[in-house]
Amino acid sequence: MRYGHFDDERREYVITRPDTPLPWINYLGSEAYFGIISNTAGGYSFYRDARLRRLTRYRYNNVPFDLGGRYLYLRDTVSGDFWSPSWQPTRSELEDYECRHGMGYSAISSRHEGIEAETLYFVPVDENLEIWRTRVTNKRDSEAKLSLFSAVEFCLWDAWDDQTNFQRNFSTGQVEVEGSVIYHKTEYRERRDHFAYFACSEPLAGFDTQRDTFLGAYNGWDSPAAVERGESFDSVANGWAPCGSHHVELTLAPGESKEIVFVLGYWENPDEAKFDPPGSQTINKKLVKPVIERYLRSDEAEGAFQRLRDYWSELLGILQVSTPDEHTNRMVNIWNAYQCMVTFNMSRSASFYESGIGRGMGFRDSNQDLLGFVHMVPGRASERILDIAATQLPSGGAYHQYQPLTKRGNDDVGSGFNDDPAWLILGVAAYLKETGDISILDEEVTYDNEPGSESPLYEHLQRSLRYTLHRLGPHELPLIGRADWNDCLNLNCFSTTPGESFQTTENKEGGVAESVFIGGLFVLAAEELAQIAELRGHTDEAKCYRDDGAKMEATVREHGWDGAWFRRAYDYFGDVVGSADNEEGQIFIEPQGMCIIAGIGVDDGKAVQALDSVSDRLATKHGIVLQQPAFSHYYVNLGEISSYPPGYKENAGIFCHTNPWIMIAETIIGRGDAAFDYYQRINPSSREDISELHRCEPYVYPQMIAGKDAPSFGEAKNSWLSGTAAWNFVAASQWILGIRAEYNGLRIDPCLPKDWERFEATRIFRGATYRISVNKPKGVCKGVTQVVVNGTKAEDNLIAPHPAGSEVVVEVTMG
Ligand code: GLC
Ligand code: GLC
Question: Choosing a second label site near 122 at 20 to 30 A (CA), which of 27, 210, 591, 746?
Answer without folding.
Answer: 210
